[in-house]
Design brief:
The protein is mostly beta strands. Helices cover 13% and strands 37% of the residues. The strands form 5 sheets. Strands 12, 13, 14, 15, 16, 17, 18, 19, 20 and 23 form a 10-stranded mixed β-sheet that branches. A 5-stranded antiparallel β-sheet has the order 3-4-5-6-7, with no helix packed on it. The protein has a 4-stranded antiparallel β-sheet with strand order 8-9-10-11, with no helix packed on it. Keywords: Membrane, Transmembrane, Transmembrane helix.
Length: 414
């Protein structure tokens, strides 16, 4: 046996050094067992180190893998089916929705509305004693507070629109309570309950603010449009009044204006006119007659130029105008004579003097008859009707002094 066969193996010595074992190697059988155990341990440690190195390198390898060169599966391997994404619609049949109850049909005709019991809001204070409110039973389109009442509530017109946007139409009605000398109009909306009872949806608009009257209504989409007039249209001809169409919509709680003008401009036909005159002294002429001069002054206090004003003068029986001015006409009344005189346009701040020469019998003035003259400024005259002439005051702005009429005495002077 060569001598170097008994020399310590350098690999074994190095392994022992790195593993922290003893550097002295025992001899004999015990030494052989020790060497075998050391070599087996070294192989296990080396394998473990290699495995850790491979695992540590795996992420780096994976990061260098590209989709352009994926591993090719065997031809006989079936491609797996991708699961449905979360939230995808199910293939099971969708149950049908439960049918909803359709909204009530609030389209009510004028005849039906005019024979129904309707809930009416209160009227303005000056009409409360004349116009019915609350639950009111209509008949043939009208209703009265009492059978002998001068004023009557009437349904003038109805239109239909889907006011509350529920898919069914409701009803808007122009309703007025009017008499000979006073009255007001308003627009109300009506619907039906689920059992078909007519109910008041709300007040669309009334005569508030600068609205002095209403002429008509119309439906447009989901709104109600109302033709309103200013104060110059309160009881006088259309030519003096200004009119506008204003739109109103349902807000869910009530009606609000949603379109059209919100105010009237200054009316060019409305101005403050005044008239004044003194007592007339009639002087006897030696016979049974007496004569004098009635002088009247008409003034325009603004704010507009007065166009086509008319002067009316009423005289008692037995008193006549001896020289009727141009553009004046006379008509007999039950109590005397009435003269209507057209006046030229009057600018703001200007005055117009009218002189009427009068003649009367002294016996008529002494007989205790009404010895007064009456004069007023009107927008025109309607002429005699059944012996009674009726005119309307010239339209004036709100707050103007009530001085467009005057009265004086006819005094006989011996």
């Amino acid at each position: 046996m060569p001598e170097h066969d008994n020399a310590p193996d350098l690999d074994d010595i190095f392994t022992a050094y790195t593993s922290g074992g003893p550097l002295a190697v025992p001899s004999g059988a015990a030494a052989a067992q020790h060497v075998a155990r050391r070599r087996r341990t070294t192989r296990l440690v080396a394998a473990g180190v290699l495995a850790v190195a491979v695992l540590a390198a795996a992420p780096a390898l994976a990061s260098t893998w590209t989709d352009q060169d994926p591993p090719i599966p065997p031809a006989e391997t079936p491609t797996p089916t991708s699961p449905a994404p979360s939230g995808a619609p199910s293939a099971s049949p969708t149950p049908s929705a439960s049918p909803s109850t359709p909204p009530p049909d609030g389209q009510i005709g004028k005849t039906e509305l005019g024979n129904a019991a309707l809930e009416l809001p209160a009227w303005p204070e000056y009409l409360k004693k004349h116009c019915p409110a609350g639950r009111v039973q209509f008949s043939d389109g009208g209703a009265q507070l009492a059978p002998n009442s001068e004023l009557q509530v009437k349904i003038d017109d109805v239109v239909h629109a889907d006011l509350d946007r529920d898919g069914a139409k409701e009803t808007a009605a122009l309703i007025g309570c009017h008499g000979i000398e006073m009255g007001e109009a308003r627009v109300l909306a009506f619907d039906r309950t689920a059992i078909g009872v007519i109910e008041t949806l709300g007040l669309v608009t009334g005569q508030t603010g600068d609205i002095a009257g209403m002429r008509g209504i119309r439906a447009k989409g989901t709104v109600v449009e109302v033709e309103v007039v200013d104060a110059a249209g309160d009881g006088i001809v259309d030519g003096f009044a200004q009119s506008q169409w204003r739109a109103y919509s349902w807000s869910g709680k009530g009606f609000v204006q949603s379109g059209g003008p919100t105010a009237f401009p200054l009316n060019p036909r409305v101005t403050d006119l005044s008239i004044s005159g003194d007592d007339v002294r009639l002087v006897g002429d030696g016979a049974d007659t007496a004569s004098g001069m009635l002088r009247l002054t008409v003034s325009n206090q603004g704010p507009q130029r007065a166009t086509d004003p008319y002067l009316t003068v009423s005289l008692p029986a037995g008193v006549t105008v001896t020289d009727v001015p141009a553009k004046c006409t006379a008509s007999d009344t039950r109590n005397g004579t009435r003269h209507q005189c057209w006046l030229p346009a009057l600018a703001v701040g200007d005055n117009s003097l009218i002189e009427l020469p009068l003649s009367a019998t002294q016996s008529s003035l002494e007989a205790g008859q009404p010895n007064e003259w009456n004069a007023s400024i009107v927008w025109g005259y309607t002429g005699a009707e059944g012996g009674d002439w009726r005119g309307w005051p010239y339209p004036e702005p709100d707050g103007a002094k009530d001085d467009n009429s005057a009265t004086g005495r006819l005094v006989l002077t011996p």
